[in-house]
Amino acid sequence: MSDFETVAASEDQAARRGPSGEPGAPNQVGGTSTVTGRPRSLAGDAWRDLRRKPIFWISLALVVLFTAMAAVPALFTSNDPTNCVLARQHAAPSGGAIFGYDFQGCDTYARAVYGARASLLVGALSALLTGLIALTVGMLSGYFGRWVDAILSRVIDIVLGIPLLLAAIVLLKRVASDSSTVRIASVIFVLAVLGWTTAARVVRSSVITAKEQDYVAAARMLGASNGRIMWRHILPNALAPAVVVLTIALGSFIAAEATLSFLGIGLKEPTISWGIDINNGRVHMRESATPLIVPSTFLALTVLAFIMLGDAIRDAFDPKLR
Where are the transmembrane segments (predicted)? Predict the structure, then answer.
């Protein structure tokens, strides 16, 4: 066996040992299983806790439903949301238009279904980009400490003090293009740049805790580089709490996109968005309230589902709540 393979094998063995030096100690939270006699892991305890929570299953079902709606909208409606006929303006429900038509003669339900794609796309990509920024800043700040931590912590404090919606309005006002792709990319970039601070703080805290563990010290003594330690031993510990925070943030990003589109700052026609439809429905609410209620309900259920799912996962992984 080469020297590199020996070091790698020693690191893996050290990573499986906790502060007591016993195998499996880092994952041992709930004691020993009475069925198998094996140490119970944090993930196993969390899953057993989640299975007993109705709120988890309800929120998960809603998330799956709206994700499928965004991915394959044709499964939920056969009508074309862009097929608008003024003669059907505010017409009663008929055929596949179960909620009637809006002021342009468009199918209200079809537009709400197809509006899920833009809203979830912006929310998911904003959360993904936010996660990349938060992991990078949080890991560098927590692992290296000293002046690196001091500088990055001040950057986090500065960005955290900027009101997200107000800053997003100011920045998106500078985007002159009406191209759907450019508008979507701009909203994603602005939300991610302004919304990564909370996740970065969570990652930083997890990294500071993880780097003091004995298995990290053992890997360092065996000659592992900083990059290898951060990738192999620190990142797995920082990833789980970051995912929980980003799940909740995803719902917030969807709501922020709808707000910006409602104000005419975010997405614009011909893109179909819940925020755009809510604004149009507000203007013509006296003629018919359905075009306002339907997209508002879809938006509220989606945001609530992601926030409830994130809260349930966070509570399940928090040993203090056991």
Answer: 55-76, 120-144, 151-172, 184-203, 238-265, 292-313
Residue 17 in domain: no
Residue ranges making up the domain that contains 223: 63-321
In a domain, 80, yes or no: yes
For residues 317 and 42, the answer to whether their CB atoms sit within 8 Å is yes
Domain total in the chain: 1
Check if the beta carbon of residue 250 is closer than 8 Å to that of residue 124.
Answer: yes
Between strands 28-32 and 39-41, the pairing is antiparallel
The CA-atom distances, in angstroms, between 310 and each of 108, 180, 196, 314 are 30, 30, 16, 6
CATH, residue 140: 1.10.3720.10
User: pLDDT digit of tens for each residue in the chain (322 aa)?
Assistant: 444 444 444 444 444 444 444 444 444 444 554 444 555 665 677 777 777 888 889 999 999 999 999 999 999 988 888 888 887 887 888 877 888 888 888 889 999 999 999 999 999 999 999 999 999 998 888 888 889 889 999 999 999 888 888 999 999 888 867 788 888 999 999 999 999 998 999 888 888 888 887 888 887 788 778 778 878 878 877 787 888 889 889 999 999 999 999 988 888 888 899 999 999 988 888 888 889 999 999 999 999 999 988 888 887 776 555 5
